Structures are given as structure tokens and as C-alpha cells.
Amino acid sequence: QVQLVESGGGLVQAGGSLRISCAASGLTFSVYAMGWFRQAPGKEREFVATISGNGAYTVLADPVKGRFTISRDNAKNMVYLQMNSLKPEDTAVYHCAARFGGVFVIESVASYWGQGTQVTVSS
């Protein structure tokens, strides 16, 4: 059974930092690209970041470039999203996703999804 479990969300002030994590199990982790997507109330779920199976290549969405970093530790089956200089508009439920193959920015190609973790940024 494949499971993706996010953790680390919480409430932070604007300008602060937060690191959220995704623990994967039940799959051959290194052959899956991983991604982070987020969804705020009343909005479509949007792409945030993705990373290749070996960690060599990453893509970040324009609104988070220079502020967020995606990384992975294949020995631990973990994916991370380091979020710095947080803004109120970053408030959303953050979901991790897995895709067999390369990096992805389209949510429809993901094979597995986590339940999400809430990130709230106060002004």
C-alpha cells in the first residue's frame, strides 16, 4: 500500500519560515519524481515545486522562486519543502504527490497524493 504523509504545517507570521515534510512508503521511492501542490479555499490547486527521482533537477513555480526550496532524502524516503519569507498568500493546504518518471507540474499525471498539511501565514 502506497502512503504519502505530510507533516510540519502550522501558523507562522509573514516573513517567517517553515519546513514541511512528506514521508513515502510502499513504493520504490527513487524512481518517482515528487511534487508539492497547494490549495487555498475557493481556489484551484496549484503547482508549487517538483524534484526528480535522484534529486538532480528541480522546478519551482514563479510565485515561490527564491523563497522555497524542494529537496529529498532517498535513504529516508522523505521529501521536504523549505519555505522562507512566507507571505499571507502562501496560506493553503500543501499536498505532496508522486509520479513514476520525471518532474511534473501538472497534477493530473501524479499517481499518489498525501492528505495535506495546513500552512497559515498571518499578516
Q: Mean pLDDT, nearest integer?
A: 97
**DSSP summary: helix tally:** 0
Q: Give the helix/strand class.
A: mainly beta
Counting DSSP E segments of at least 2 residues, the number of strands comes to 11
Percent strand: over 45%
Give the N-to-C terminal Cα separation: 40 Å
Please trace the helix and strand order, writing H or E for each element.
Answer: EEEEEEEEEEE
**Poorly predicted ranges (pLDDT <50, ≥5 residues)?**
none
- Described by the principal axes of the CA atoms, the overall outline is globular
Task: Kindly state the percentage of residues in helix.
Answer: under 10%
Give me the Rg, rounded. 13 Å
* Biggest β-sheet strands, sense, barrel: 7 strands, mixed
